[in-house]
Amino acid sequence: MADEKIRKHFGDYLGTAEVAILTILAVLISLTALATIARSGKLLWDTWHQWMVVADTNLVLRVLDQLLVVLMLVEILHTVRISIRSHTLVTEPFLVVGLIASIRRILVITLEAAALTKEGKWTLEGQTIFKASMIELALLGLLVFVLVYCITLLRRSPEKSEEVFDDPDAEGAEARHNADVAAPSGGSA
Fold first, then answer.
1. What is the per-residue pLDDT for 145?
2. How far apart are CA 147 and CA 103, in angstroms?
3. How many CB atoms lie within 10 A of CB 97?
4. Is the pTM of this model over 0.70?
5. DSSP-derived secondary structure letter, 117
6. Element (DSSP H or E) covering residue 34
7. Among 162, 159, 22, 169, which Cα is nearest to 89's?
8. Closest CA to 21 of 71, 87, 70
9. Whole-angstrom Cα distance, residue 22 to residue 55?
10. Phi first, then psi: what are they for 90, rounded to 5°?
């Protein structure tokens, strides 16, 4: 009895520490996202003013890169918010962050390859870099396809796409849910 009481209090303290750490993490991610938005706003402003002078795809690439980083940070923040609220680890936001990162890299490779193939820059070293970039682009395209397929499967799944870590009744609830799914319905014939 006393051992169970100590375990319960220890579990409560660890749960409180987890929420505190996740809250601090959420604040830091929010600050990082805000700083990145400010930086990309400044880059966009600089790009806008230099657009008439220089048509530099490098500046556009950097702005797009920063905005996609913000999008990834917001998705990570969403995952942290779900973790704080429900004490669960949801799989889908991690797949979405991987998808955004893959698309971000595809855009970077595409713009770098466009700059590489301009007149006067096509050298033997440039050809090697271009070939390696195309292989990476193909692999990233395959990865995007796999991630989208996994997200689709998760959304179609009748089961919850989350793992419950702190609920001791989760196993019992899962067994009851599986029994409900396995039980034939009375109206189907």
1. 95
2. 11
3. 19
4. no
5. T
6. helix 2-50
7. 162
8. 87
9. 43
10. -95, 135
